[in-house]
Amino acid sequence: xxxxxxxxGGLVQxxxxxxxxxxxxxxxxxxxxxxWYRQAPGKQRQWVASITTGGTxxxxxxxxxxxxxxxxxxxxxxxxxMSSLKPEDTAIYYCNARIMDVTLATxxxxxxxxxxxxxx
Length: 120
Known about the structure:
This protein is an all-beta fold. The chain is 0% helix and 60% strand. The protein is elongated and about 45 Å long. The strands form 2 sheets. Strands 2, 4, 5, 6, 9, 10 and 11 form a 7-stranded mixed sheet that branches. A hairpin with a 4-residue loop joins strand 9 and strand 10.
């Protein structure tokens, strides 16, 4: 069974950096797009960034120029390097991946989330 496990969250001061990781485990036949979403208290989950298998990245306007998404296809892992963090970046960050699993069906998988808190 495929699972996504995030790590790297924590408490940081504004202006500092943090790097999130998300590793996919289980029987994976192919992994398509991977991405990060976040959900702040009382708000809906929003898309942050995504990256294709070939490495094409896209970002939400709110993080463009500050966050960098990357992936290691050999390790089935996606990263989110967050720099110049702001208090409004505080949220639970979720990893997402579109994966063809052992059933040969392609599904969206989600991690359980990792908390990022930015203090002012």
